[in-house]
C-alpha cells in the first residue's frame, strides 16, 4: 500500500511512462513512442496533475528512471525530474529500469526471482538478477552489459524457478536455453513507471533521496567503443 504522494517518470527506453500517486489514487500513462519523449513528457505530467487536482508542491517526492537504457532517454528522465524538483524543492529518487521490470514481474505474477534485460544494441544486453525481499525486488550482485551468449552459471547462479523479462530476451531468447529453471515472460518488455512506486516510497521513507543537483543517471555502459573509420583515428 503506497501512502506517500509520488510522481514518477521514465523515458529511458522506447516506452514513455508516468505515474502519479496522490491521496490514495493512481493516475498512469504508458506508451511506446520512440524519439518523441522530450515533446510529450511535460504535457503528460501536467495532464496527470490536472486529473488528480494536484499541484507539484503537494507531492512528497519525485522518482525517475535512472537507466540503463538509451543514453538520450536516460538523460531526458534525469533532466525532467531535476527541473520539476528545482521548481518545488522536492527530493528525488532514481530507480533502475531493470529493477522496475523486476518489480512489475513480482507484482503481476508473484515471481520471486527475476532476470530483467534491455536490448543494449551492438549485440549486447543490459542484464541483472533481482530477488524479492519484503515485497521489494532487490539487486543480486550488480547490473551489467553483456553479450547474451556469454550468460553462464556465473550470471544465472540460482536454481530456483525464475523469470526472464525485457527486450533483451525478446531479441535473444536463445540466451537462456541452457537454464531449465528460467522461463521467459514475453508480456513484460519495457519498464513502466507504475512499478517504480514501491521503490520510490521505500527510498523516501528511508531518507535515501537526493537533491535535484545531485541526481545522476546510471548508464551501466559508461564508455562505448566505436569502430574507427579509416582516416579518422
From TrEMBL:
Protein name: tRNA threonylcarbamoyladenosine biosynthesis protein TsaB
Gene Ontology molecular-function annotations: tRNA N(6)-L-threonylcarbamoyladenine synthase activity
Domain of life of the source: Bacteria
Record bears the keyword Acyltransferase: yes
Protein family per UniProt: Belongs to the KAE1 / TsaD family. TsaB subfamily.
SUPFAM superfamilies in alphabetical order: Actin-like ATPase domain
Presence of keyword Transport: no
Start and end residues of each Gcp-like domain: 32-152
UniProt keyword list: Acyltransferase, Transferase
Annotated Pfam families: TsaD
Amino acid at each position: 500500500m503506497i501512502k506517500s504522494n509520488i510522481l514518477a517518470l521514465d523515458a529511458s527506453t522506447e516506452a514513455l511512462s508516468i505515474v502519479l500517486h496522490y491521496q490514495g489514487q493512481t493516475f498512469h500513462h504508458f506508451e511506446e513512442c520512440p524519439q518523441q519523449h522530450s515533446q510529450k513528457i511535460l504535457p503528460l505530467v501536467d495532464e496527470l496533475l490536472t486529473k488528480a487536482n494536484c499541484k507539484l508542491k503537494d507531492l512528497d517526492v519525485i522518482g525517475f528512471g535512472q537507466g540503463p537504457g538509451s543514453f538520450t532517454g536516460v538523460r531526458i528522465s534525469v533532466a525532467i525530474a531535476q527541473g520539476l524538483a528545482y521548481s518545488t524543492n522536492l527530493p528525488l529518487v532514481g530507480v533502475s529500469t531493470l529493477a522496475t521490470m523486476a518489480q512489475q514481474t513480482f507484482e503481476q505474477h508473484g515471481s520471486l526471482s527475476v532476470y530483467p534485460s534491455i536490448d543494449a544494441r551492438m549485440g549486447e544486453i543490459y542484464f541483472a538478477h533481482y530477488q524479492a525481499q519484503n515485497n521489494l525486488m532487490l539487486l543480486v550482485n550488480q547490473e551489467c552489459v553483456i553479450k547474451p551468449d556469454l550468460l553462464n552459471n556465473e550470471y544465472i547462479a540460482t536454481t530456483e524457478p525464475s523469470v526472464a523479462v525485457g527486450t533483451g530476451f525478446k531479441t535473444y531468447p536463445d540466451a537462456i536455453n541452457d537454464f531449465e529453471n528460467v522461463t521467459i515472460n514475453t508480456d513484460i518488455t519495457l519498464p513502466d513507471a507504475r512499478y517504480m512506486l514501491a521503490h520510490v516510497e521505500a527510498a523516501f521513507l528511508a531518507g535515501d533521496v537526493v537533491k535535484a543537483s545531485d541526481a545522476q543517471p546510471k548508464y551501466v555502459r559508461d564508455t562505448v567503443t566505436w569502430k574507427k573509420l579509416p582516416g579518422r583515428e
